Amino acid sequence: MRAVLQKVVQASVTVNSKVVGQIGKGVCVLVGINKDDTRDDMEYIAKKILGVRIFDDDEGNMWKKGTQELGLEVLCISQFTLYGKTTKGTKPDFHEAMKSNGSRQFFDDFVERLGQLYDRSKIATGEFGAMMQVSLVNDGPVTLQLDSRKFTYDKPDPALAEKLAAKAAAKKQRQNGFTQNQNQNQNQNQHQNQNQKSLEKVETS
Are strands 65-66 and 73-78 parallel, antiparallel or unpaired? Predict the structure, then answer.
């Protein structure tokens, strides 16, 4: 699960010229859901959003207070494009994102969990699956990227690991064989040169 968190003075979401969610001072959060996400990922991101210290304390010291500690607002917006891959070609690949039929419920559960951990009345959302226009005033600016899996969802593949190890061993064996052949050829050349020198000595004598 991924989230892009922005510290804002204000933020709002509009759908078809109608404001469907808005907050004052707090955080605006874009939320991406991976196809392999579980309740553990949900819990991690929810607690990070509420607890990460991006606000000043009363004395103006930076990075001292979190959203929940200060009683500020949260605007959550579903954003499957956080899992877009652009490593191949120019068209983004979104296969890592959870399908809409599952992600809708997951997002609703996530918002509910935020409310349980905090205060549901302080949490606003966009409209899931709609074309939204997001407006905000980023304070700082401060923007953080959060990821429950530390930006990797790769799983160990024993078969692939074994295949790569065998490939590396075969390459090393070929290299060793090439080195041995070189040494043999050098020895043969040296032996031939010695024989040639011996023949030349016999002929001159």
Answer: unpaired
CA 148 from centre of chain: 9
pLDDT digits (tens, 9 = 90+) for 85-119: 999 899 999 999 999 989 999 999 999 999 999 99
pLDDT confidence of 201, banded at 50, 70, 90?
low
Q: 3-state DSSP call for residue 172?
A: helix
Cis ω for the linkage preceding 141 (within 30 of 0): yes
Give me the residue label for tokens 């808005």: 22
- If you ran DSSP here, which 8-state letter would residue 61 be given? -
- 81: annotated active-site residue: yes
| b/e map 129-164, b = 16+ CB within 10 Å | eeebebebeebeeeeeebbbeeeeeeeeeeeeeeee
Nearest to 33, CA basis, from 134, 147, 117:
147
pTM above 0.85, yes or no: no
Are 132 and 123 within 8 A, CB to CB?
A: no
Catalytic-residue membership of 79: yes
Catalytic residue among 81, 143, 182, 188: 81
Residue of 6, 14, 55, 80 with catalytic role = 80
Q: Which of these is catalytic: 14, 79, 107, 110?
A: 79
